[in-house]
């Protein structure tokens, strides 16, 4: 069984462009989480899916951010009109069910120039 | 709102020495995680502490949890250079989401 995978691993984009990241959770994991980590800080929760339903969104998730998990499998996180403040590591994690350990992917490092 | 504080934020220590990293959190939780992160990398799970009084050890690292004091510790014994990394504690918020709230991290630099 492979772990959580994320693509791309690195993304450099110009301010104002749109970017999309993909996360493939561990198979059969019902829960999927997105976190954001800026330099020198701990990861911060962005949003969470139970199967295909997005059940919670952080206040950090502005209107420019949208996440989906069609069919309850992989998830995408899109950022529209990127800003320099969006530069961060975006981490995806999945867990089997309620109160189970979350397993983190390798992350996507976004740099907005 | 749950807050998680770690101290120290930065720790420079010599090889062979012992030290402890502290993780305090502000509201009740019975589940705490410790992670290691190397520069530019993702999180590596070290310990999962599931109940009051839990103690786990792996190599030179030992973690404990006191839910009544809302305190977890990560003790380093006879540090070696390979332990240099940033260490995070994270508290499970319970409830329906079980999102993790992370501490600020402790940057550990072990000097030869």
Entry keywords:
heterodimer, A: 113 residues, mainly beta, seven-stranded mixed sheet, 11 strands, B: 112 residues, six-stranded mixed sheet, globular
Description:
The complex is a heterodimer of chains A (113) and B (112). Chain A is mainly beta and 113 residues long. Chain A contains no helices and eleven strands. Chain A has strands spanning 5-7, 10-13, 19-24, 31-37, 44-50, 53-57, 65-68, 75-79, 88-95, 103-104, 108-112. In chain A, strands 2, 4, 5, 6, 9, 10 and 11 form a seven-stranded mixed beta sheet that branches. A four-stranded antiparallel beta sheet of chain A has the order 1-3-8-7, with no helix packed on it. Chain A is globular, with a radius of gyration of 13 Å. The relative contact order of chain A is 0.34. In chain B, the strands form two sheets. In chain B, strands 2, 4, 5, 9, 10 and 11 form a six-stranded mixed beta sheet that branches. A five-stranded antiparallel beta sheet of chain B has the order 1-3-8-7-6, with no helix packed on it. The model of chain B has no long low-confidence stretch (mean pLDDT 93). Chain B contains no helices and eleven strands. Chain B has 112 residues and is mainly β. Chain B is 0% helix and 55% strand. At the A-B interface, strand 4, strand 5, strand 9 and strand 10 of A face strand 5, strand 9 and strand 10 of B.
């Amino acid at each position: 069984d492979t772990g959580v995978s994320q693509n791309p691993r690195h993304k450099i984009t110009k301010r104002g462009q749109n970017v999309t990241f993909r996360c493939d959770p561990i198979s059969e994991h019902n829960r999927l989480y997105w976190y954001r980590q800026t330099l020198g800080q701990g990861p911060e929760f962005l949003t969470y899916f139970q199967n295909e339903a997005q059940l919670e969104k952080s206040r950090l998730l502005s209107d420019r951010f949208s996440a989906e998990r069609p069919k309850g499998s992989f998830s995408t996180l899109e950022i529209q009109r990127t800003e320099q403040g969006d530069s961060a590591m975006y981490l995806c994690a999945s867990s089997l069910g309620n109160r189970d350990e979350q397993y983190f992917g390798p992350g996507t490092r976004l740099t907005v120039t | 709102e749950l807050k998680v504080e770690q101290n120290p934020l930065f720790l420079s220590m010599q090889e062979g020495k012992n030290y402890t990293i502290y993780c305090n959190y502000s509201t009740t939780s019975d589940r705490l995680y410790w992670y290691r992160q190397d520069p530019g990398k993702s999180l590596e799970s070290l310990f999962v502490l599931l109940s009051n009084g839990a103690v786990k050890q792996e190599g030179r690292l030992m973690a404990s949890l006191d839910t009544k004091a809302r305190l977890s510790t990560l003790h380093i014994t006879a540090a070696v250079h390979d332990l240099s990394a940033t260490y995070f504690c994270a508290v499970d918020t319970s409830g329906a989401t079980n999102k993790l709230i992370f501490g600020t991290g402790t940057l550990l630099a072990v000097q030869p």
